Amino acid sequence: MHKVSHREYTKFWHAHDLGNLDLLRATYITHAFTRHTHDGYAIGVIERGAETFYYRGRTHVAPAGSIVVINPGEVHTGQALDKRGWSYRMLYPEIELVQKAAREVSDQWQHIPDFPDPVIQDPQLVSVLRNL
Asked: In the prediction, which pLDDT does 105 show?
């Protein structure tokens, strides 16, 4: 049986061994992010609960076990779907790092990669990102 925490928690740090990648692990119950953008990507794994957010003109829901990908410069929000809140892990890679990864899988890649769907259901990729 899992104990549900009613406390908000954040831990933000830089992974020096991953090129100073910014990382966040958080639990939010009542906290809500107003409309904002990031210079780079925001890529996260929802670990508990569900997040709802406005992005590209629509409201999306990311349940536990899903991945959220926000493209650079895109206005978005973020809050808990319900009173239980949500827990997640985020990484914030710079555009150049994602471009480099894209070039490693395709020699033809020249521009900024775009992720059209902000909520991805892929258990194997969730596992890889959590281990990272």
From this structure: 83
